[in-house]
Design a protein that fits this description.
The complex is a heterodimer. By secondary structure, chain A is an alpha+beta fold. Chain A contains eleven helices and five strands; from the N terminus they run ααααααβαββββαααα. The longest helix of chain A is centred in the middle third of the chain and has 19 residues. By secondary structure, chain B is of the alpha/beta class. Classes of the chains: A alpha+beta, B alpha/beta. At the A-B interface, helix 4, helix 7, helix 9, helix 10 and helix 11 of A face helix 3, helix 5, helix 7, strand 3 and helix 10 of B.
């Protein structure tokens, strides 16, 4: 936790360096009224910029602050908690806003710039509000060839308006509202034997077609939660973001149902099943476990 | 096993890592314990760390994450003292296009990874392990967390594991969508809460890794193999695979085959044999090109059906074994198109740290897109190769090298297809337009 109450969260160091820690000439001089000063911008414009830079952090209540502290406690060095904390921020806001950046900066005693640099590096951190559901379509070469490109195009047209299909990270409906859907291109999702694949909130929907994908998003828009091929029962993007941060359902039954969600696709088991069917096995291990090798003590 | 002379050739499919996957609720501790789970750990804890490092060296286990570095040798780089904390970091950031072996492994048999982690940590005198899982693999994260929880409750993790005096804590850490974090030093930066950009080596992680302390980064499949080696011994492990590439390996067969899936076979299997297992080419349409181990490994063609898919065999034939992600493409697929799609991937995933990769992939993608759209120029192929030459071996990490693989190998084997795209355009340009109407 930081003691800094400066809304701009100017950290005490810059990436571990002490350069710039001392008093600057601005701080040393008399206070300057930046709003009424000789600015090229109008007063209203300047106020808007300042307001944007000092957002309201009240959305991150005591429960979120407590969770942030738990995250920090999981690592030998606090900064390692930044990625999980950004997932936590997304579980609150549905994306990472400037307020989210400042929240993390305050919790970890980093500068806003240090946090922003991290946020913008990773594709799973969204900079604009997302739908209740995030639909990620793999359009890497193999899935694209098997129909992934066609699926993305079809979804864009289906969810968009006449002549204005949705593109990457566009949202159908009002972000955050029930039934709203953000679509995105995804890179290889490590399910190539099941391609073309897509994910809804990072749960797998395997072996898709443009038609099945349209059915899926229509069901999502109606408020239904079709079961994934592999993964936990579908929830929404924010709930999954909380799990990505490392906080799982506390209710044992719900937790168990999530963990036990299906995973063994036919494709996954093909080799093992083929071997079982044909009586193929790995060479048998020795009956008595062999002794560990002798090594000379240095 | 019997003596080496009479050792029969193993069966075509040798389920070791994948065998438990068939069991109902294979991810639960109760299932795992019924299937020899945590017996290797008990045995390992009776030995010394040096003995375990030697065992893994004797087994010849090579890294399953793509580079194939001998795991035992990597472990032996860790300092024998404990002046600083030692860290074991598991690279579960599976994202190499075509690669889909670690995700099913972590979903189906997370305890094999956990048990491997405990043995490996003991061998390297580490008391802290992080499993860095790509964020999109949500269900793996869930299963791993549940497995870690079960392992703590059963006394396999925490202080004084099974009364041995050895203690280990494991933290499952979710990434946030960046292919580059599969590069081990970028992964460490990411785990430290930074942009995932690779570090200059040396120092290698064993000298200065996570928090500048001695660290070993290993792939999921590598570590999950360790309990089997402890139980079966080095000689048993070597009954599969080849002299220099021993053991079983999960081959992920995808694309235009009848039965895509995960096939665990001894290292050295050929594509011809894999295709037989996978039911042959889909709809009988002939093979055109394929990757032996992901998009970063140079393409192979139908000429390479009998190349042994082990580290040496793939390299001798001009590619790399990589992650044994066998993506199969039939004659209907345009090579320049496939190469363009992969190049856009590398452009997107280039971390931006070094100029050759950041700028190079940008221009490569632009030129390839132009070619595929039918606007290629006669000099495009030479320009592509020239840019590739300025990336290969001149980038900060292997992402740059991987980015040029599809292009240089694509042009090597299918130059005519690239030329045709340029010719098509030059013909179009030279066709005189109709003139005279007003």
């Amino acid at each position: 936790m930081t003691s800094s109450t400066d809304p701009l969260s100017l950290g005490k160091s810059y990436g571990g360096s002490n350069v710039g820690v001392g008093e600057t000439h601005v701080a040393a001089g008399p206070e300057v009224d930046v709003v009424d000063g000789a600015s090229a911008l109008s007063r209203a414009e300047t106020e808007r910029l300042i307001t944007e830079a000092t957002p309201d952090l009240s959305v991150f209540g005591p429960d979120i602050v407590a969770k942030a502290a738990i995250l920090i406690g999981r690592y030998p060095e606090s900064r390692s908690a930044l990625l999980p904390m950004l997932h936590l921020v997304q579980s609150v806001e549905g994306h990472v806003s400037q307020a989210g950046v400042q929240f993390c900066a305050q919790q970890l005693n980093l500068t806003n710039a240090e946090v922003s640099a991290v946020v913008t590096f990773y594709t799973m951190f969204k900079r604009k509000p997302c739908g209740e559901h995030l639909v990620s379509v793999c359009t890497n070469t193999l899935c694209a060839m098997l129909g992934g490109d066609a699926i993305f195009q079809r979804l864009g047209e289906h969810l968009g308006e006449e002549g204005r299909p949705l593109g990457h990270e566009d949202t159908s409906g009002t972000p955050g509202e029930p039934g709203s859907i953000t679509i995105e291109h995804a890179e290889c999702l490590a399910a190539c034997d099941l391609g073309p694949v897509l994910q809804v909130n990072y749960e797998f929907y395997d072996n898709q077609t443009p038609e099945s994908a349209v059915e899926l998003v229509d069901a999502l828009r109606r408020g239904e939660k079709p079961a994934p091929t592999r993964g936990a029962p579908l929830t929404d993007l924010r709930s999954v973001a909380l799990q990505l941060a490392g906080f799982f359902p506390e209710d044992e039954a719900t937790y168990r149902s999530h963990v036990d969600g299906p995973s063994a696709a036919v494709e996954t088991l093909r080799g093992a099943q083929l071997a079982a069917d044909r009586g193929w096995t790995a060479p048998t291990m020795p009956e008595n476990t062999p002794a560990l090798p002798e090594v000379e003590k240095k | 096993m019997t003596t080496t002379e009479t050792t029969p050739r193993p069966d075509p499919v040798t389920p070791v890592l994948t065998k438990r996957w068939l069991s109902p609720n294979s991810w639960r501790l109760s299932t795992y314990e019924q299937l020899e789970g945590y017996t290797a750990l008990r045995k390992a804890l009776t030995g010394t760390p040096e003995q375990l490092v030697q065992l893994v060296k004797d087994a010849g286990l090579r890294g399953r994450g793509g580079a194939g570095f001998p795991a035992g040798v990597k472990w032996s780089f860790m300092p024998p003292n404990e002046d600083k904390p030692h860290y074991l970091v598991i690279n579960a950031d599976e994202g190499e296009p075509g690669t889909c072996k670690d995700v099913p492994l972590m979903m189906a048999d997370p305890h094999s990874l956990i048990e491997g982690c405990i043995i490996a940590a003991y061998a390297m005198r580490s008391h802290r392990c992080f499993i860095y899982v790509r964020g999109e693999a949500m269900h793996c994260i869930r299963r791993l967390n549940a497995a870690v929880r079960e392992a703590y409750d059963a006394g396999y993790l925490g202080q004084d594991i099974l009364g041995s005096g050895f203690g280990l804590d494991i933290t499952v850490h979710a990434g946030a969508g960046a292919y580059i974090c599969g590069e081990e030093t970028a992964l460490l930066d990411s785990l430290e809460g930074r942009r995932g950009q690779p570090r200059l080596k040396p120092p290698f992680p064993a000298a200065a890794g996570l928090y500048a302390a001695p660290t070993t980064v290993n792939n999921v499949e590598t570590i999950a193999s360790v309990p089997f080696i402890v139980n079966g011994g080095a000689d048993w492990f070597r009954t599969m695979g080849t002299e220099r590439s021993p053991g079983p390996k999960i081959y992920s067969v995808s694309g235009h085959v009848e039965r895509p899936g995960q096939y665990e076979a001894p290292l050295g299997i050929t594509l011809r044999e894999l295709l037989e297992l996978a039911g042959g080419m889909k709809d009988g349409i002939p093979l055109k090109f394929w990757t032996p181990g992901g998009s970063s490994t140079p393409l192979f063609t139908a000429e390479h059906l009998d190349v042994p898919l082990d580290f040496e065999g793939a390299a001798e034939a001009g590619s790399m074994l990589g992650t044994t992600a066998v993506m199969v493409f039939n004659e209907t697929v345009s090579v320049p198109w496939a190469v363009m799609k992969w190049t856009k991937f590398y452009e997107h995933e280039s971390c931006g740290k070094c100029t050759p990769c950041r700028e190079g992939t940008y221009w490569l993608a632009g030129i390839l897109e132009r070619m595929v759209e039918g606007n290629g120029t006669a000099s495009d192929i030479e320009t592509l190769l020239d840019i590739c030459d300025n990336i290969l071996g001149r980038s900060f990490c292997a992402l740059g090298d991987g980015a040029v693989s599809p292009i240089t190998s694509g042009i090597k084997y299918f130059r005519d297809e690239f030329l045709a795209l340029c010719d098509q355009n030059s013909k179009a340009k030279t066709t005189p337009a109709l003139a005279g109407a007003h």
